[in-house]
Design brief:
Blueprint lengths: L3 H9 L2 E3 L6 E3 L1 H4 L4 H23 L1 H10 L5 H49 L2 H7 L1 H42 L10
Antiparallel strand pairs: 1-2
Helix pairs in contact: 3-5, 3-7, 4-5, 5-7
């Protein structure tokens, strides 16, 4: 899809009726479609960061058992500790990479939308621009597009983390016999 189609999609984006609330909302996924790849890649890299972080944390259980058992051999402890440190490094690198990917996508979306809106305004009759007022146009071009930046850059990664950490934690709780996972909570 080329960038000139973005504004057409933005202009034609019809409200979507939410079945639960009955509210009409602009379909943000259609507006952000030029950067969906960045959004999904940021979510995936964020998930890799989460898995590496959880794996590093879980590795401290066998390290603690080895230390508590009074074993004279420290090679296993140092090996597990080294793997844990490497996993923490992977988690931090992935978190930074996810941040960078999603923010670059958000900045690209801002540039695309502002360029297309300015191009569209150049074709609109001057009477419309005068009647709409500069405040309303400024709000759309700057404030609304900036709000989309927050959605693309931060919300997608945060939602991915929350949903996936729940999906990873639930089997662990179920294995330990947690009453919440059995529906007796």
């Amino acid at each position: 899809m080329n960038e000139s189609e973005t504004l057409r999609r933005f202009e034609k984006a019809e409200p979507v009726n939410d079945a639960q609330t009955g509210a009409a909302e602009l379909n943000l996924w259609r507006v952000t479609s030029p950067v969906n790849r960045e959004i999904c890649t940021g979510m995936a890299v964020s998930f890799v960061s989460l898995v590496a972080w959880l794996a590093a944390t879980v590795l401290f259980v066998p390290i603690t058992y080895e230390l508590m058992s009074g074993s004279r051999s420290t090679s296993r402890i140092w090996t597990l500790f080294g793997i844990s440190v490497a996993l923490v490094a992977v988690a931090l690198v992935c978190r930074v990479l996810s941040f960078r990917i999603s923010h670059l996508g958000a900045f690209r979306l801002e540039q695309i939308l502002r360029t297309e809106m300015a191009s569209h305004l150049a074709k609109v009759p001057l009477g419309y621009v005068v009647s709409a007022g500069s405040g309303a146009l400024k709000k759309v071009i700057f404030d609304d597009v900036r709000a989309l930046h927050a959605f693309v850059a931060d919300v997608g990664r945060a939602v991915a983390m929350v949903v996936r950490i729940g999906g990873l934690a639930t089997p662990g709780f179920a294995a330990k016999g947690c009453p919440v996972t059995a529906g007796h909570g």
